[in-house]
């Protein structure tokens, strides 16, 4: 198996050159979520549980943003292999129009009915009233985030992974500073509490969008052809819908599934402790997965570009095997490191910092151990689904393999253990991670067939 890791000189330098900035970008983004959670936790466990509940529909918005962004990257990475700037501009234009439309509608729903939506997610009406002001504003911020993320995705697919890292670093520093000022009322500003976190995020996203727009106008690497951007044509719309709509549905269903896990925890007898522990460990787990997400995104760029360049079927298969094995090995290393930190850092230092004591700390420990043990499985499946299969245009199977195990295994098992059998939290934590046990072998079987390799640009000349 390890024979496939032997590649031409410079391959791994190129891989880490793509992975590093993307991983840092994800680290910056997840750190922002962690800082939000930390500052809100200082207000109390009830406030943190309210924000966790409010972030259930917000996570659905995030998933839609990521879905449109991932769908765009399928087209851009292969067109980049052909250096076809006109069709890259057309793809960005279609993605911007469809993505903005989706987020505007959802943001309007969250703004108009925040309490009613939150009442569906928890059996505690106090959390709904407390979190509603946060939910009303946070949805609007993702309209701006959608547009910024699409351009960042296009730049990443054109092998410029550093742009997103710099942009989101700027917005994260701004957001964190505004959080401190507006949550606690520093420097003469009003203490807005939970609502202050939403205002800070909205202002940071608007600034992020303004900077991104300025860079897009002046870019030489990826100059947008504005005529093609604003008039992308029906053929590009058809192609984007064909290859991107399954990805958007995939991420939406996956995001809804993750939201349902939070809803299940919100209906347990100890819902406040469960939600508080899950809020902290959800962010900490993602911090350890940033390298895996980076490798998955880099895999998508490399596979998509290789197909666009017209490499042979066997070359693409060998390349995918190398990337997947390497990612799994990196995941194993991350597991060893993270498990060492549970008794030495998380339990004695991090959990008290987030006001997790007693039962909340015990639940967080269970979530930490089960989550960290699953990192190699998550690493493989992330690169298999978001990297290999999607970049190869195999959007139907990537969607089925990503969503099926979650809805058919993890969700019903977690609901059964948490709400019906009232099982110990260790069993509930294990059930949350159970989907990977099914997803990994299914992904491996699909990739082995080689039927996932498609050139999505093949009809370019005939179509227009």
Mind sketching the topology for me?
Layout: H1 11-41, H2 45-82, H3 85-112, H4 114-119, H5 125-157, H6 162-184, H7 194-218, H8 226-230, H9 234-266, H10 271-288, H11 290-309, H12 313-353, H13 359-373, H14 375-391, H15 395-420, H16 425-432, H17 435-449, H18 460-463
What does this structure look like?
This protein is mainly α. It has one domain (2-454). Helices cover 83% and strands 0% of the residues. The chain has 18 helices and no strands. Helix 1 packs parallel to helix 6 (162-184), helix 10 (271-288) runs parallel beside helix 13 (359-373) and helix 13 runs parallel beside helix 16 (425-432). The longest helix is centred in the C-terminal third of the chain and has 41 residues, at 313-353. The chain is globular and about 55 Å long. It is a multi-pass membrane protein. The chain crosses the membrane at residues 12-34, 54-76, 88-113, 133-152, 164-184, 196-217, 247-267, 287-303, 323-354, 360-380. It is found in: Cell membrane. Keywords: Cell membrane, Membrane, Transmembrane, Transmembrane helix, Transport. This is MATE family efflux transporter.
Features:
83% helix; 464 residues; mainly alpha
Into which percentage range does the β-strand content fall?
under 5%
Number of helices: 18
Major beta sheet summary: none
- This entry's quaternary arrangement is single chain
Mean pLDDT: 88
Per the principal axes of the C-alpha atoms, what is the gross shape? globular
Please report the total strand number as a whole number. Answer: 0
What number of structural domains do the residues give? 1
The level of helicity is: over 70%
């Amino acid at each position: 198996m390890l024979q496939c890791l032997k590649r031409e000189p410079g391959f791994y330098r190129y891989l880490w050159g793509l992975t590093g900035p993307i991983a840092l970008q994800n680290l910056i983004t997840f750190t922002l979520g962690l800082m939000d959670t930390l500052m809100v936790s200082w207000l109390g466990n009830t406030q943190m549980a309210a924000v966790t509940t409010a972030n259930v529909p917000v996570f659905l918005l995030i998933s839609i943003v990521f879905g449109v962004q991932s769908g765009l990257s399928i087209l851009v990475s292969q067109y980049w292999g052909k250096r076809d700037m006109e069709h890259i501009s057309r793809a960005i234009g279609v993605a911007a129009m469809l993505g903005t439309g989706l987020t505007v509608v959802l943001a309007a729903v969250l703004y108009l009915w925040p309490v009613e939506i939150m009442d569906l997610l928890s059996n505690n009406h106090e959390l709904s009233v407390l979190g509603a002001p946060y939910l009303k504003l946070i949805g609007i911020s993702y309209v701006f985030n959608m547009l910024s993320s699409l351009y960042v995705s296009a730049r990443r697919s054109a092998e410029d992974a550093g742009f997103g890292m710099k942009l989101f670093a700027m917005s994260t520093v701004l957001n964190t500073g505004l959080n401190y000022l507006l949550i606690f009322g520093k420097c003469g500003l009003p203490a807005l509490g939970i609502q202050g976190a939403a205002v800070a995020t909205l202002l940071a996203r608007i600034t992020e969008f303004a900077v991104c727009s300025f860079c897009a106008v002046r870019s030489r690497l990826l100059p947008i052809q504005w005529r093609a951007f604003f008039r992308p044509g029906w053929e590009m719309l058809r192609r984007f819908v064909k290859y991107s709509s399954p990805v958007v549905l995939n991420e939406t269903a996956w995001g809804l599934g993750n939201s349902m896990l939070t809803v299940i925890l919100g209906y347990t007898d100890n819902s406040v402790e469960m939600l508080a522990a899950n809020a902290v460990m959800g962010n900490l787990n993602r911090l350890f997965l940033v390298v895996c997400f980076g490798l998955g995104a880099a895999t998508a760029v490399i596979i998509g570009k290789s197909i666009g360049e017209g490499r042979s079927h066997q070359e693409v298969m060998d390349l995918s095997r190398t990337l997947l094995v390497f990612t799994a090995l990196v995941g194993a290393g991350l597991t060893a490191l993270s498990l060492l930190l549970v008794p030495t850092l998380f339990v004695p230092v991090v959990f008290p910092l987030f006001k997790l004591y007693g039962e909340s700390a015990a639940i967080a420990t269970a979530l930490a151990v089960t989550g960290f043990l699953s990192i190699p499985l998550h690493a493989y499946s992330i690169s298999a689904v978001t990297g290999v299969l999607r970049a190869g245009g195999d959007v139907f199977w990537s969607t089925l393999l990503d969503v099926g195990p979650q809805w058919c295994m993890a969700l019903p098992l977690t609901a059964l253990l948490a709400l019906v059998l009232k099982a110990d939290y260790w069993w509930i934590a294990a059930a949350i991670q159970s989907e990977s046990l099914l997803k990994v072998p299914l992904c491996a079987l699909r990739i082995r067939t080689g039927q996932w390799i498609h050139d999505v640009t093949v009809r370019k000349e005939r179509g227009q």
